[in-house]
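Sample intake — DNA-deoxyinosine glycosylase
Collected from: Alkalimonas delamerensis
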Amino acid sequence: MMAQLTGLAPVSRPDARLLVLGSMPGAVSLAQQQYYGHPRNHFWPIMAELFGFDAALAYPERVQALLNNQVALWDVLQHCERQGSLDSAIRAEIPNNFAEFFATHPAIRVIAFNGRKAQHSFQRWVLPQQVLPDGCQLLALPSSSPANATIAREQRLLQWRQLADFLA
């Protein structure tokens, strides 16, 4: 039986310039009500290296470090059905309200997709009906999920480093 899932609220401030989008949080993240809560997810170590904070900080401090660097976190999907945590198991997708998000975050210049599923869901459900902020760029990045074992840590980090270039 497929579980009915509801995503997390965005982590953001109105001055955010970079929006990192996942597809839908995994089971551990939803249980913890924290983005990228799985202990083997590469997201927080990558962000810590890019933005100069300790990945071992408590979740509120890690979030604050991103906010201080004008980085917002959210997911493409507000609701979906999924058994387990894999993106490939996602069904019955309902996207988040990006019109409202962009209206309250006018400084967004880059939307970075944490994995292919986030990018594909955004292209399918959001882009056809949403005007992006002026000059906003889309950036596809390899998934930070521990299930994405096809890419070496160094290669993943190299691709994610592009984020810092957009905020320089």
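Post-analysis note: The two ends are 46 Å apart (CA to CA).
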